[in-house]
């Protein structure tokens, strides 16, 4: 029933209950059984682990059929709404802002009560004051409630509380000042077939630490010794790229341009040429920046390079505002250099990523419509996402191999 429901955009247990009694296809599929919505919902809730395994087994089936095995996946993440309104998600900043607004309301009501005391007649005065006192009491109750939530926030590791779905988190989206309360869904999509070979649901709003886990999951699902993984600049992390390299995964991720020097007409690190044989950089003026010392930042070792003639250089104004221009090089920077070489040799890599991994997200969100996950809590949401991915992969396989060969492969 659930596979049929997610294939036909009927994920709700109550809607499946109605369809089981009036939809001829579903009546044939269930043998005229008509379970109520509670039975249907409980099955999904109590079998979350088995549902996720079923999704993984279907990917294994696709691999055995011979559809998968290209050795390249595109990785991306997208935010999906949870069953939790933004007004029922709290952070310290939200609470402070709401309390300040409520305190302004209290001040306004007190001023209004003072004005009524001075100006209005006795009978009207009593009704007006009673009404204002009721409003004032409600505002004070809300301030007390928010203060209690603020005390609870001190015990939460990430400084957030969601009342409807306790695992949902407030996450920023691309629009300035916008966001949603939900989950960050990660997928690894085969670049040849557009099948989702691995997916995960997380409560972390950014993708920085997701590259290696998703690439490793895709490699395990495809049973490959080596794998190519492509992701956008949101996944760039030296730790993750190094972890991929250790697992025989070739990661290609553009480095985010965090420096504003290029817009100012100044030189950036890319304008300095590194010579591995002598371990030095050559600046745009032709001078060598030699190695000075190594320091550790956030568990990564960085080597520092500079030379002492910068203050006499005619290009200094375009290079640095300090005494000398210093260059920092990560001890595994060769991995990033190799990554940029790959992108120069194949300029379409990022286009392949965009055309591959964003299509499944668009399809899944179109199937879901302008709604949210049906279930609450991370474990259950993961099961629901597995049903979405399973339905997507089934439809994709029908388009690739046809219904007959797919049914035969499932039977064997």
From TrEMBL:
Keywords: Coiled coil. Residues 282-398 form the Transposase DDE domain. Residues 99-156 form a coiled coil. InterPro entries: IS1182_transpos, Tnp_DDE_dom, Transposase_InsH_N. Residues 1-45 form the Transposase InsH N-terminal domain. It comes from the Bacteria. This is Transposase DDE domain protein. It comes from Falsiruegeria litorea R37.
């Amino acid at each position: 029933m659930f596979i049929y429901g997610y294939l036909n955009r009927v994920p709700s247990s109550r809607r499946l209950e109605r369809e089981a009694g009036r939809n001829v296809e579903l009546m044939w599929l269930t043998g005229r059984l008509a379970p109520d919505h509670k039975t249907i919902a409980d099955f999904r809730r109590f079998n979350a682990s088995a549902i996720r395994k079923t999704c993984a087994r279907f990917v294994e089936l696709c691999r055995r059929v011979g559809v998968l095995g290209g050795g390249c996946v595109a990785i991306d993440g997208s935010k999906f709404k949870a069953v939790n309104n933004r007004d029922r998600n709290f952070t310290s900043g939200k609470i402070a802002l709401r309390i300040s607004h409520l305190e302004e309301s209290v001040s306004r009501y007190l001023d209004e009560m003072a004005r009524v005391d001075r100006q209005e007649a006795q009978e009207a005065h009593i009704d007006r004051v009673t009404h204002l006192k009721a409003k004032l009491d409600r505002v004070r109750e809300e301030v007390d409630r928010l203060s209690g939530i603020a005390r609870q926030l001190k015990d939460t590791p990430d400084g957030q509380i969601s009342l409807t779905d306790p695992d949902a988190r407030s996450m920023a989206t691309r629009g300035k000042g916008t966001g949603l309360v939900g989950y960050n869904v990660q997928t690894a999509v085969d670049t040849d077939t557009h099948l989702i070979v691995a997916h995960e649901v997380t409560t972390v709003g950014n993708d920085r630490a997701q590259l290696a886990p998703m690439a490793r999951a895709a490699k395990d699902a495809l049973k490959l010794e080596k794998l190519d993984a492509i992701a956008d600049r949101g996944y760039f992390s030296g730790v993750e790229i190094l972890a991929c390299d250790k697992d025989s995964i070739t990661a290609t991720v553009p480095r985010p341009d965090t420096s504003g020097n290029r817009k100012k007409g100044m030189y950036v690190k890319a304008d300095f040429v590194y010579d591995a044989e002598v371990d030095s950089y050559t600046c745009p003026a032709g001078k060598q920046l030699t190695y000075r010392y190594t320091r550790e930042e956030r568990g990564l070792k960085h080597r520092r390079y500079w030379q002492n003639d910068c203050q006499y250089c005619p290009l200094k104004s375009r290079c640095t505002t300090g005494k000398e221009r210093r260059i920092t090089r990560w001890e595994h920077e060769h991995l990033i250099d190799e990554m940029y070489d790959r992108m120069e040799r194949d300029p379409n890599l990022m286009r392949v990523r965009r055309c591959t991994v964003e299509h499944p997200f668009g399809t899944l969100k179109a199937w879901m419509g302008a709604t949210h996950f049906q279930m609450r809590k991370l474990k259950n949401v993961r099961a629901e996402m597995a049903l979405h991915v399973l339905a997507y992969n089934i439809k994709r396989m029908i388009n690739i191999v046809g219904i007959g060969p797919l049914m035969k492969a499932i039977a064997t």
